[in-house]
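Amino Acid Chain and Its Fold in Token Form
===========================================
What this section holds: a protein sequence and its matching fold, both as plain text.
Structure line: whole-number tokens from a learned vocabulary of local backbone shapes, matched to residues.
Purpose: to set a sequence beside its fold so the mapping can be learned.
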Amino acid sequence: MMLTVRGLKASVESTPILKGIDLGVGPGEVHGIMGPNGSGKSTLARVLAGDPTYLVEGGTAMLDGQDLLAMAPSERAKLGLFLAFQYPLEIPGVTIANFLRTAVNSIRDEEVPAMQFYAMLQDRLKALGLDEFWANRYVNDGFSGGEKKRTEILQMTVLEPRLCILDETDSGLDVDALKIVSQGVNQMRDGERSIIIVTHYERLLEYINPDFCHIMIDGRIVKSDGIELARKIDAMGYEFVREEVARANG
């Protein structure tokens, strides 16, 4: 397994959120995580990325055999973990090109020569169908929700992480933006890189066709299957899963 999570528990302000997460993600696999509001999906993404807002109270999370929970967020990034935020921050005065070059150099052992970096950036922009002048815009400054998400996907393709975590990247997207996001994700699939997609809705997963879908309820992953599970949730909601959990617990 590339990522192995066992019994992970976490809280915020003394309120338990994750109550024992077990998850295994192999190299090259794409996993979708769905669940109702408040189930802990985004908390799981942020805990794996090292958000200090959350207190880890138990369990383990190993990436390529290394203890994620013992690392600072910057160390996790160098190991190959990338988190696309649900609500990306605006950074006025900093161009996307400069931001990305700084990010790339911060996770590599050697600085990438300027000409090599800009050639690579132009290639990534073209692959996502973005204008070459996009890189000269300030990071998310005045961007629409869809533009912010496209920039997140651009970051992902430039940084080339081993484990990509997308935290509700499809939130608020129109169909065109959704296709760009899914196109970027699918371009990253190479049989080695792994992807976790946190989402409320089945529609993004239809574009990406994950290997596994998981349902989170009340801080736990309670059911796992293929894309057909996401389709069933879309048609029936989460109530049938809650009923199954209730029956299993007696």
